[in-house]
Design brief:
The structure is a single chain. This protein is 47% helix and 14% strand. The chain contains 19 helices and twelve strands. Strands 1, 2, 3, 4, 5, 6, 7, 8, 9, 10, 11 and 12 form a twelve-stranded mixed sheet that branches. Strand 9 and strand 10 form a beta hairpin. The relative contact order is 0.08.
């Protein structure tokens, strides 16, 4: 009896579950999943169409019988059209996944053409109905495809030409080679590549085929070449949407916020980089600055302004990210900033490293811990070097220009480095409160920069602090220039009313510190070993050791991200923003960017410079 009752209860419990599944099936996919499903369908059909256009046997296989009734398969027996359509669908899939409005429009325009082609060329009512069904689904969920275009420039046309040209060359070589049974003779690889290159431009190459295969290959290669030319021309001729930049009004508003709240974050002044954009809270009492790199909306440091108004600025930031389908992320925020970001947005936070902060009243060269720094400074001073620490506004125009040129010449890299912890300029008239420490040696031969041997540049951190921006030195100068100038700046700090100095950022500092202690576990030791290995190319351990010389207190910094799957993309975007990875065209071909007003040229490599 009890068994029967249990069966009846389990059957009653299972019925609502089945009913719920049926209802979900009838309703179709969730609205927010439509872009992902549309992108996957487009990519799948694109690959099938490419295979159908390339491999002769595949066009007559059971797999292509399925592809014939999938949306977008125009003319399955026309190899060139199938190949071109497949490439276009693959290009379109990324935009659909990111909910781009233009990609949706292209798909909506493509699907009726696909339905017409299915019915006209194949007399396939099923294929036409599937195309129209997907078209109806996209129209029904059109509110999910509202993302605005990304900032763009005509350099995208050059990148498209290179990538599409390389892809067309590879696909063309496959097209030429898969028809081996119909080839006349056995042409070499060089002859086949030559045939592909000729075919992309619409000319007959050295490879001959039997029957109609020659025209099939020629049309396919011509279609690939035409597709490359058309997409490149479209990207080159469309209007530019340059990335946002700080306007004079934006900079004035940010400076007003920094005057009132600049003491909260040592990275606050770096928000004034003019290659960043900004969003303000509705009240105007807080702001978030950012840059868009590789589809990542990358903010840096804490929001600027009143903490109570931070949520409003963060909400505006997230609204802009959603409007463009950008991936939101924050580099180098403080613990307080990380808590606000994660609470207001639901994002996750990960400790990235630590910032070295020296409290000026507690700093002294006395004691065993400071012996190495003390000995190095004394040795350099005995060698005839002297130091000067001044505000930018107290420097003459001639000396300021000499410092700018020296800093640029001593940069050591072709590209400017720095984003989250760098100002990107030296000696701008609006940055008069910045601090400059210079090292001089009068007994050396006069060079292009006089007796100047090293430069340190600090930006304001509220009323009683400064934050290190860049460190540059003449490579021919004695070692220890950076230590000498940091000590000089710390000694001169009280006369400028400075009580705290932020030095470099040490990435993964806690892992390096804990991994070398007694009792560290195998996982922590392995992680430290990997960081030490990576320090051969990136200054991870050396920067930590350099900072530790001055006995600072360590302030943790965090990266805020949406999902773990975004971390590789975020890492690449951060490397590009900081100047470690440059995907732009070569400098010889690159046009100098226009700025809304002239600014001094300098470079900042805070946390990444050589020591």
């Amino acid at each position: 009896m009890s068994v029967r009752e249990d069966e009846e209860k389990s059957g009653k419990a299972a019925a609502p579950v089945r009913d719920g599944r049926v209802r979900r099936l009838l309703r179709g996919p969730r609205a927010e999943s439509v872009p992902v499903l549309a992108a996957r369908a487009g990519a799948l059909v694109g690959l099938l169409d490419i295979a159908a256009g390339v491999f002769p046997r595949f066009r007559h296989s059971r797999m292509h019988t399925l592809a014939e009734v999938l949306p977008g398969a125009l003319g399955p027996y026309a190899a060139a059209l199938s190949l071109s359509t497949g490439v276009l669908l693959l290009l379109l899939a990324h935009g659909l996944r990111r909910s781009k409005r233009r990609a949706w429009r292209a798909a909506v325009g493509l699907l009726p053409i696909g339905a017409t082609a299915q019915f006209t060329y194949r007399h396939s009512l099923v294929g036409a109905l599937i195309s129209l069904a997907l078209l109806w689904a996209l129209l029904r969920h059109r509110d999910q495809f509202v993302s605005l275009p990304d900032p763009r420039s005509r350099w995208r046309a050059l990148a498209n030409f290179v990538l599409m040209g390389a892809g067309s060359l590879v696909l063309g070589l496959v097209v030429v080679s898969v028809h081996g049974r119909h080839m006349v003779g056995d042409p070499s690889l060089a002859a086949r590549i030559t045939h592909v290159l000729y075919g992309l431009f619409g000319f007959q190459g050295p490879v001959d085929y039997q029957g109609t295969t020659s025209s099939t290959v020629a049309v396919s290669l011509g279609a690939l070449g035409l597709l490359t030319a058309v997409t490149t021309a479209y990207l080159a001729l469309r209007p530019e949407h340059p990335a946002a930049r700080l306007t004079e009004d934006d900079e004035s508003r940010l400076r007003a916020l920094l005057d009132r709240h600049g003491g909260r974050d040592s990275l606050g002044h770096f928000a004034l980089r003019r290659d960043k954009a900004v969003v303000f809270s509705p009240s105007g009492k807080a702001a978030v600055t950012y840059r868009v790199v590789s589809g990542v909306m990358l903010a840096s440091g804490d929001p600027i302004g009143d903490v109570e108004a931070w949520p409003g600025a963060i909400e505006r930031f997230m609204d802009v990210a959603r409007a463009h389908s950008w991936t939101p992320a924050v580099m180098g925020c403080s613990e307080t900033g990380g808590e606000v970001w994660t609470r207001e947005t639901g994002l996750d936070a990960l400790e990235l490293g630590d910032e070295a902060v020296v409290d000026v009243p507690d700093f002294s060269l006395a004691g065993r811990a400071m012996r190495n720094v003390r000995q190095m400074v004394k040795r350099i001073e005995r060698a005839g070097y002297e130091t000067r620490v001044r505000r930018v506004r107290d420097l003459g125009d001639a000396e300021l220009e000499r410092i700018r040129r020296a800093a640029d010449a001593w940069r050591g890299t072709d590209t400017e480095r720095g984003f989250s912890m760098a100002l990107g300029r030296v000696g701008d008239p609006s940055d008069g409160d910045c601090l400059v420490a210079t090292a001089h040696r009068a007994d050396t031969p006069t060079g292009p920069y006089g007796d100047l041997k090293a430069v340190l540049h600090f930006v304001p951190w509220g009323d009683d602090g400064v934050s290190l921006d860049l460190m540059r030195r003449d490579r021919a100068a004695d070692p220890g220039m950076n230590e000498l100038l940091i000590v000089a700046a710390l000694r001169a700090a009280p006369q400028f009313g400075i009580a705290r100095v932020s030095l470099n950022f040490a990435m993964f500092r806690s892992a390096l510190s804990r991994g070398e202690r007694i009792g560290a576990g195998p996982v922590l030791r392995a992680w430290r070993g990997l960081l030490v290995f990576l320090s051969r190319w990136f200054q991870i351990e050396s920067l930590y050791r350099f900072n530790a010389k001055f006995q600072p207190r360590w302030e943790p910094r965090f990266v805020v991200y949406r999902a773990s799957a975004d971390l590789p993309r975020l890492g690449l975007a951060a490397l590009r923003a900081e100047g470690f990875v440059d995907l732009a065209p070569p400098r010889l071909l690159r046009r100098r960017p226009r700025t809304p007003r002239p600014c001094a040229h300098g470079t900042a490599e805070r946390g990444v410079r050589a020591v």
